[in-house]
Amino acid sequence: MSLAGALKNVYSSLVSFGRDSGRKLEHIVLSSNVTLGAERPSDPGVAAWFHWDGLQVCIAVDRYATVEANLQAIHHIIEARRVELRHGTLALVHATMKGFISIPAPAGKKPWREVFVFSPSFSGDRLQIEARYRELAKQRHPDAGGSVEAMAELNAARAEALREI
Question: Which of 102, 93, 121 is nearest to 48 (CA)?
């Protein structure tokens, strides 16, 4: 699958999902950390952000080695919601979409070095940040006994750290 084809599939699925649900789907943003022209990106993950039926949704996939494959996975996730619409109810789809609600940034933001428990003078690299992120996410994710707030803080710190580094 080409990048153009995968992008088309995601947009088409989202438009069809909005039409099929009878609910407004808007503000679609597809994002990735991939630099244009990179043959083998170190992070091929992709996120689809949008608003639907009062929810701010983020479907993020980084399971596969290529951006195209991760986009296709998002396409299939949306198509699965369309199947739920056809064979279930809007209430079922609304409940499953709540699993994709995007986590808002925390209000009282700490500096990223503090969130990552690095010294104020830390000037490491992307690999060190990603390693610490994975380590802390295992503790702070809601499924691991953490909280939505702690994970949101960690996600925001990671984004800020990678921008700065």
Answer: 102
What's the rounded Cα separation, in Å, for the pair 116 and 153?
Answer: 10
d(CA 59, CA 50): 9
Beta pairing, strands 46-52 & 25-32: antiparallel
Alpha carbons within 13 A on the beta-carbon side of 97: 28
Tell me: the pLDDT tens digits for 95-134? 988 888 876 544 567 888 989 999 888 888 889 999 999 9
* pLDDT of the residue at 160: 86
Using DSSP's 3-state secondary structure scheme, residue 55 falls into strand
d(CA 112, CA 154): 8
Q: Say which residue the tokens 């630099």 belong to.
A: 35
The parts of the chain modelled with pLDDT lower than 50 are 105-106
* Residue 102: how many other CB atoms lie within 10 Å: 17
DSSP bridge partners of 46: 32, 61
